[in-house]
């Protein structure tokens, strides 16, 4: 905190120089942009720093999904992050009209009738927490998520939680012994929500500009949850919900707004819960899940804690699919499951175990890194054709984040005096790639 106070103090002195006319206007504009960016980094990366006065309080609905919007939401969410903030409890019998979101996703439920019509149930399985005697941890995390994502309205009746990549939470149910339900409200004047996976499999063509804007919004959602101290642990196209306008509102098919859901395994950084390896052993070892996991978790028997950098790896795989606009997995109607789409990229077990890893005693530990190697090759070959080399570099950086070969290693050295950066590398890294995405020129 002392370092942050010194940083803010330095900015205050610089503003004083500006007020006294000691800095030329042109130079002052450049410095002002840098100072505001520095202040934004400090606010986003500091979990204990709150805004006393919320900017644009009466014009929240008019804000575009930019960094001001994200900062505002994070400030409001942190204000709610207190045990005294009320939580709406919902009875299970109100969910009798709920059904699986789609045939590929049984973790998200959609309510199509009743008081919560149009809402989405996000189910958090707690069986493994019960087995470890850590149910108090998951209860605390579930309630905390319900608070910080709680729907809230300003004086004009505008919902102030629905434009930053996370849907507003209208309540929770914790009455079932094996799971908790978070209930998220989707806009009433839009089409029925779908997942990014479903849209990728339909293969509707979307402009490069739409894909770029979609990527910016998705990265912004990751920035928000990481700024709030949440490790998602399951970012993939199946956990990204799209909200699209009705045909009356937009006759042309639009890509829609992305929202992160599937908080089934999510936790706060301060919480230590079920190790990822145990979760995988419990039945989530399908390749269409593990491909989005950082290979370090799959290449060892050790129970490594899941970190925000692992979410960034997952984001990188999603950005790759958005760039080429193809799902890496196809739906098998006979077995009703996802499987590798070898027409896009073959990373099936057979390819490796019958090929380069045949007879290798440590093949199970090497395989995850071979898959990532092929993802990197695919990204370097295919992405420049669609969204260009700059977007390709962003994806590669996400897939190698936190390693010596990544740009982030050099950035850490260059910004070693930036306290906010050292406090939360992932927040600063996502901010960095957001800047690059916003500066991309597709012409």
TrEMBL record:
Record's SUPFAM superfamilies? Answer: Protein kinase-like (PK-like)
Where the record annotates domain Protein kinase, the positions are: 60-422
What PROSITE patterns does the database record attribute to this sequence? PROTEIN_KINASE_DOM (PS50011)
Identify a single GO molecular function assigned to this protein.
Answer: ATP binding
The molecule here is called Protein kinase domain-containing protein
Task: State the organism named in the record.
Answer: Sanghuangporus baumii (Phellinus baumii)
């Amino acid at each position: 905190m002392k370092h942050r106070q010194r940083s803010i103090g330095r900015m205050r002195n610089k503003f004083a120089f500006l007020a006294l006319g000691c800095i030329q206007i042109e130079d002052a504009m450049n410095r002002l942009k840098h100072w505001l960016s520095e202040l934004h980094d400090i606010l986003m990366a500091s979990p204990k720093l709150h805004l006393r006065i919320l900017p644009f309080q009466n014009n929240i609905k008019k804000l575009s999904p930019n960094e001001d919007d994200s900062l505002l939401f994070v400030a409001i969410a942190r204000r709610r992050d207190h045990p005294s903030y009320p939580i709406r409890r919902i009875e299970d019998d109100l969910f009798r009209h709920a059904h699986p979101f789609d045939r590929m996703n049984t973790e998200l439920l959609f309510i199509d009738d009743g008081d919560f019509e149009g809402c989405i149930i996000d189910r958090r399985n707690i069986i493994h927490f019960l087995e470890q005697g850590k149910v108090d941890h998951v209860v605390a995390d579930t309630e905390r998520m319900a608070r910080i994502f709680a729907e809230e309205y300003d004086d004009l009746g505008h919902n102030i939680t629905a434009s930053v990549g996370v849907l507003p939470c209208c309540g929770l149910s914790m009455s079932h012994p094996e799971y908790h339900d978070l209930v998220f409200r989707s806009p009433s004047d839009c089409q029925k929500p779908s997942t990014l996976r479903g849209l990728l499999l339909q293969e509707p063509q979307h402009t490069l500009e739409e894909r770029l804007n979609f990527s910016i919004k998705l990265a912004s959602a990751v920035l928000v949850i990481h700024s709030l101290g949440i490790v998602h642990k399951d970012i993939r196209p199946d956990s990204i919900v799209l909200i699209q306008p009705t045909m009356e509102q937009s006759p042309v098919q639009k890509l829609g707004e992305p929202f992160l859901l599937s908080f089934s395994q999510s936790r706060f950084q301060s919480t230590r819960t079920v190790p990822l390896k145990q979760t995988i052993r419990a039945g989530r070892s399908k390749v269409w899940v593990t491909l989005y996991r950082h290979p370090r978790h799959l290449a060892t028997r050790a129970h490594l804690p899941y970190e925000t950098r692992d979410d960034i790896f997952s984001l990188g795989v999603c950005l790759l699919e958005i760039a080429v606009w193809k799902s890496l997995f196809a739906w098998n109607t006979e077995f009703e499951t996802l499987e590798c789409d070898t027409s896009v990229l073959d990373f099936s077990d057979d390819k490796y175990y019958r090929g380069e890893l045949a007879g290798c005693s440590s093949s199970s530990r090497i395989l995850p890194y071979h898959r990532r190697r092929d993802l990197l090759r695919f990204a370097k070959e295919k992405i420049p054709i669609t969204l260009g080399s700059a977007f390709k570099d962003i994806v590669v950086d996400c897939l190698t984040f936190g390693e010596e070969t990544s740009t982030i290693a050099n950035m850490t050295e260059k910004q070693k005096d930036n306290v906010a950066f050292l406090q939360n590398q992932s927040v600063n890294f996502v901010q960095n790639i957001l800047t690059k995405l916003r500066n991309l020129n597709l012409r």
